[in-house]
Design goal:
globular, single chain, alpha/beta, disordered N terminus, 12 strands, ten-stranded mixed beta sheet
């Protein structure tokens, strides 16, 4: 996944008014006794360097929807209007994931990527979720090291891990404690409905990726009467928020790793990592042990064994993982690296600072706030994390200890609201790759089970995180196009085959403009 271009600032001051909710909405969202209704946005050109059709505005939304006349946050929104008003159906809101991913420039990308029959139906609406980017950005003042929550478990370092988790929670509370309790998925869903009201729309359609699938699902529960055509791409399992969504990275990495060993053994003449799956596995774990003793330098960066294990997402795409491990072996042996070998993006050190925009820790400050504030299911006893990290290190050697080790949520303040129950049927479309590293197939199936009335399209053989508009050759695209343009869901779930693998296909042709998904292998 690639970091998108710097955010465009949006400005404007808007007053508020408060008409009554419909009975349906009030029943669905009892925490919001009144519909928050900002006036129509004051649209302006986002930037002289961008197309004139790309417009921005700023809405004022309540920090706490239970106190709608109290403190407010800025909400940066953008749009590109439907080309033909006669064919326009409504608005299509979009979210790229995260939590903490900015989405203000999604209309720019989607404008050129959506097929004509879909594009002509909608005004494309982007927004930076509350606390993110240009929407009253928050910060905890975290260093680069403090933002890293993929921490390997070792008995001798566990006390330091506990101290790190406590420090992150304390710094967030001290720097942004008045705001972070309200940076939650439920409040962001309420912001989406405020956008709907400001735009004068009866209902909204939606395209959400990764974390954005959970955001969309929560909206369907809080505002069922306002839900139109919703596409949830690469889904979160509502029953696993949020510790379980991190732990599933470990459980599902094991079959992906086994698949990689088989694929690589069949290509031993090319990669020289072993002629059997067992030999490939032994080569890999030998490199991990060697890097733990003496870090291996690859492409100017020294990698420990834990760093190598953090490359977990690569193993969901064998054609990406094999060259990396072959390059690592060559670097360890002091032999020439394979042609084109380079350190994968998943392991590259992040820039020390951002040239413009919010604080460098903005994305992770929001991620911690959402993951810790959406649910009260996080254990509060550090010893439970120790026990489970030890257990899962043995069960799931590639990533189990990192997934189950302690996180700042152990010391976060209690959430203001309970997690959202998925009780209301929702006629939405889910799409999912079979080999997705961040929201594995099992979590997409979990969302499908949670949302009664949903339909799911599964791309067998599909690799990579996110599908629609990310992989132009995916077999799911026709179904999504049809649903967004006609509103008709498939009569039943769809299973199709995507071949060759997206990584191979993307390498053979010019890549489309990347969607601005949040950077890093530790995000949704």
């Amino acid at each position: 996944m690639k970091r998108f271009a710097p955010l465009l600032a949006a400005a404007g001051l808007l007053a508020t008014s408060l008409p009554l909710l419909t009975a349906t909405q009030a029943a669905a969202d009892p925490a919001a006794a009144q519909e928050y209704a900002p006036p129509k946005p004051a649209w302006h050109r986002c930037d002289a360097a961008q197309p004139a059709a790309y417009e921005c505005a700023t809405l004022k939304v309540p920090l706490d929807y239970r106190q709608p006349r109290g403190r407010t946050l800025d909400l940066a929104i953008s749009r590109m209007k439907a080309p033909d008003p006669a064919k326009r159906r409504g608005v299509l809101l979009m979210n790229p994931g995260g939590p903490g991913g900015p989405g203000l420039d999604l209309p720019l990308v989607a404008d050129g990527a959506l097929p004509k029959e879909v594009r002509e139906k909608y005004d494309l609406i982007g927004f930076d979720p509350r606390g993110v980017g240009a929407s009253s950005p928050v910060s905890c003042g975290l260093t680069d090291a403090e933002q890293q929550f993929q921490r390997a478990y070792r008995p001798e370092t566990f006390a330091a891990d506990v101290a790190w988790a406590r420090t992150v929670a304390d710094k967030c509370r001290e720097k942004s404690g008045g705001v972070l309790p309200y940076i939650t998925t439920r409040n962001t869903a309420r912001d989406m409905d405020a956008i709907r009201v400001a735009l004068g729309e009866r209902r909204i359609s939606y395209l959400g990726y990764s974390y954005g699938t959970y955001l969309g699902a929560v909206y369907t529960q809080l505002f069922p009467a306002r839900t139109d055509r919703f596409v949830l791409d690469s889904s979160i399992d509502p029953q696993r928020i949020w510790r379980g969504m991190i732990q599933v990275w470990a459980t599902e990495a094991e079959p992906a790793f086994a698949r990689w060993t088989r694929w690589t053994a069949e290509r031993d003449a090319e990669y020289h990592l072993g002629a059997t799956p067992e030999a490939v596995s032994a080569t890999f774990w030998g490199l991990v042990a060697r890097a733990d003793r003496d870090p291996i330098e690859l492409d100017g960066q020294k990698l420990t064994g834990d760093d190598v294990r953090r490359a977990r997402p690569l193993f969901f795409s064998p054609a990406k993982a094999a060259p990396f491990v072959a390059a690592l072996k060559a670097a360890a042996d002091g032999t020439p690296p394979p042609a084109g070998a380079a350190l994968p993006e998943e392991l590259r050190e992040r820039p020390r600072s951002a040239p413009a925009g919010p604080a460098p820790d903005n994305g992770m400050a929001v991620a911690f706030s959402v993951m810790c504030g959406d649910t009260d299911s996080w254990p509060r006893d550090p010893e439970q994390y120790r026990r489970e990290a030890e257990r899962d290190k043995a069960r799931y050697p590639l990533y189990g200890d990192m997934a189950s080790n302690i996180k700042p949520c152990a010391f976060w303040q209690r959430p203001a609201e309970a997690a959202t129950a998925m009780r209301i049927p929702a006629d939405v479309l889910l799409v999912q790759n079979e080999w997705d590293s961040q929201t594995p197939l099992v979590t997409g199936q979990g969302m499908h089970a949670a949302l009664r009335g949903s339909r799911m399209v599964t791309a067998l053989g599909g690799e990579g995180h996110t599908v629609y508009l990310s992989d132009p050759g995916s077999c799911v695209n026709a179904t999504v196009d049809s649903y967004l343009s006609t509103g008709r869901l498939p009569a039943r779930d769809v299973t199709c085959t995507t071949a060759p693998a997206p990584a191979e296909r993307r390498g053979a042709a010019a890549a489309p403009k990347p969607l601005p998904f949040p950077a890093g292998p530790q995000r949704f």
